[in-house]
Amino acid sequence: MKRRIAKLITNVVNPFAVSTVVIGVLAFRDTPDLTRALLWTVGALALSVVPILLAVLLLVRRKRMDGVFNNPRQQRHFLYGIAIVTGFFGFVLLWLGNGPQLLRLTFIAGMMALLVFMLVNLYWKISLHTAFIAGTATIFTIVIGGWGALALVLLPAVGWSRWALGQHTLAQVTVGAVAAAGIVLAVFASGGYL
């Protein structure tokens, strides 16, 4: 039963779903026109979340990855590179198209975090699940205020699920969360949001 609950949490509150929520919330918050907000949401998702999800599904299907959310560190190297490149193209689209500032800062923070995590991943497996939750809670707190911090209630459950499934140690869960929050704070501070 414990394992089933941990799998459910891992599968529902995952980096792809969390990213989709963040992109949608920020696009609609920072764009006055509903149609443009929807276009920015779709464009940002198409150049960040969707390519990585498709790559993961393809690699799992071809047996080059053990699973979507349960894989050894060595199977993640390639994905970090793809994520950074697609994130860069997403940022360029947002920058050239004068996209929402909040999304641009989020893409910069995401690329910086992925670069740091890619380097760490050469030696140690950091938790992306907790990183995405902590990063999201930090962004939402900056943008929305105290209510945004409510996203932090998911952090203990997500961290526990990754530990219970044997995917991460307590240190990896903690470092993922702290590193992501720190990177987001640094990027948003440099963008004038703190």
List how many beta strands DSSP finds: 0
- Percent of residues in helices comes to over 70%
SSE topology string: HHHHHHHHH
Mean pLDDT: 94
3D structure, described in words:
The protein is mostly helical and 194 residues long. Helices cover 74% and strands 0% of the residues. The protein contains 9 helices and no strands. It has helices spanning 2-12, 15-30, 34-46, 49-61, 77-96, 101-121, 128-144, 154-164, 170-190. α1 packs across α8.
Short description:
With 194 residues, the chain is an all-alpha fold.
Based on the model shown, name its key terms.
194 residues, mainly alpha, 74% helix, globular
Please specify the SSE layout and strand pairing:
Layout: H1 2-12, H2 15-30, H3 34-46, H4 49-61, H5 77-96, H6 101-121, H7 128-144, H8 154-164, H9 170-190
